[in-house]
Design goal:
alpha/beta; Ubiquitin-like (UB roll); Rossmann fold; 2 domains; six-stranded mixed sheet; three-stranded mixed sheet; 22% strand; disordered N terminus
Length: 286
């Protein structure tokens, strides 16, 4: 019998298995697969000189914008009109110098930023100053002065006090429109503390007198209290004796009609015996 070749049955192969021939490269393999790699985009690169030129151009552009914006603000927000309200102790020019004295103080935009949500404090005789911008070229300064009832002279200075007798300011200068009060006795003065007088309730009377005078546009040079606290008002060389603190308001109301005839005269008008039926008062010349 003839010999038969015996063939061994091989293992079943993985259907995804590929045979790569010897010498075939990865590039050839990709070519064979039919797929092409997308070329990478080249990055845009500038030389150092060109980059420096671009940065310089950007810087100069920003600089020109800043300069142009600054010139526009300076030329278009320049203050030409100023309103000052409520100032008695200081002139309008002095108030303007306080508010606009710094650099760019004549620029409404700068002032609006500087005084936004805040006023000006720490100025003698002034409680607060507010600055409001009404237009690009117009501002308004509102002054709130401290409520001063009068002043006394002490050691060569003017001592100003409020309605409660609290010393609010001391100065070497006299303020127009605030009467001097004489006849009070005290031996010392401390800022922001009451004047140490024997009768503190006098300050209510002083405030009432100054308010009544202001109500009728009268300005007394001096309010004098004698040892019995009788009141005398001085208007130049004419003096008006009001007496004690009775019917003071009515006496001053009548005085507004009498006072014009007393101006420039030296003498005394006695109003201590005031009554509603009194039609006239005698004036005794000095």
């Amino acid at each position: 019998m003839g010999s038969k070749k015996t063939v061994k049955k091989g293992k079943k192969r993985n259907p995804n298995l590929r045979l790569v021939k010897n010498g075939e490269t990865g590039r050839e393999k990709k070519k064979r697969s039919g797929k092409k790699r997308e070329p990478k985009p080249e990055k845009l690169r500038f030389g150092k000189t060109k980059r420096a030129g671009i940065l310089l151009a950007v810087f100069l552009s920003l600089l020109f914008l800043l300069i142009g914006g600054g010139l526009y603000i300076i030329n278009n927000y320049k203050v030409t009109t100023v309103y000052v309200d409520g100032s008695v102790h200081y002139t309008n020019e002095e108030i303007m110098d306080m508010v606009m004295g710094d650099g760019f103080g004549d620029n409404s935009l700068f002032l609006s930023l500087k005084y936004r949500d805040k006023g000006i404090e720490g100025v003698p005789f002034i409680e607060m100053m507010d600055v409001s911008i009404e237009a690009k070229d117009t501002i308004r300064i509102t002054v709130y002065e401290k409520a001063l009832a009068g002043y006394v002279r002490y050691l060569g200075r003017y001592i100003y006090f409020d309605k409660d007798g609290i010393v609010v300011e001391t100065s070497e200068e006299e303020t127009a429109g605030i009467p001097q009060v004489t006849g009070l006795t005290f031996d010392h003065v401390i800022l922001h503390e009451p004047l140490p007088v024997d009768k503190p309730e006098l300050f209510d009377e002083i405030l009432n007198i100054t308010q009544q005078l202001a109500k009728y546009s009268l300005s007394a040079d001096r309010i004098y209290f004698d040892s019995a606290y009788q009141v005398t008002l001085y208007f130049g060389d004419a003096k008006v004796v009001l007496g004690d603190n009775v019917d003071i308001d009515e006496k001053i109301m009548v005085l507004q009609n009498i006072l014009p005839s007393l101006l420039g005269k030296s003498g005394t008008l006695d109003m201590r015996e005031y009554s509603e039926d009194t039609k006239s008062y005698s004036f005794e010349k000095d």
